Amino acid sequence: MKTKLIWTFLLCLVITMGLMAQEQKKVTICWDVSHSMHDRDLEKEFYFLDAYFKTVQNAAVTLLPFSNEIVSKDQFTVKNADWSAVKSKLQTFQYDGATSYTSLGDYAGSGAVLLFTDGKQNLDSSSPSFEGELYIINSKKDFDRASLNLLSIVNNGNLINLTEKKTNTNSDAHEVTYSGTIYGGAAGLAAVDVFVKEDPDNKVSTDNQGSFQIDAPQGSTLVIAYGNRITEHVLDEVKNLDFSISDGEIQLQEVVVTEVGEEQPEEITTAYGKENKDKIGYAVQSIGEDQIPDAATTANTAVQGKFSGVSLGQNDDLSQTKMRPSNSILGNNYSLIVVDGVPMERSNSFTGEIAGTGFIDPRNIAEVTVLKGLAATNRYGSMGANGVLMITTKTAIVDGPRGQKKDLARLTNNVYDSKLKVNKKSLVTPYLKELKNGKSVQEAYDLYLNQRAKYWDTPEYLVDVASFFYSSDKGLGNRILSNTLEKPTPGYEELRGTYLKSMEVGNPELALVAANKMITDFPNKIQPYLDVAKAQEKIGNHQLASNLYHAILDGSANPKVNFLGLEKLVGTDLRNLVNQERKHLDISKVSSAYQNNLTYNARLVLEWNNTDAEFVVQFVNPQKRFFNWEHTVASDRKRIMDEIQHGFGSEQFEIVGPETVGDWILNVTYLGNRTSGNKIPTFLKCTVQYNFGKANQYSEEFLVRLQDNGDEQQLAKFAVQ
Question: Rounded CA gap, 550 and 214, in Å?
Answer without folding.
Answer: 32
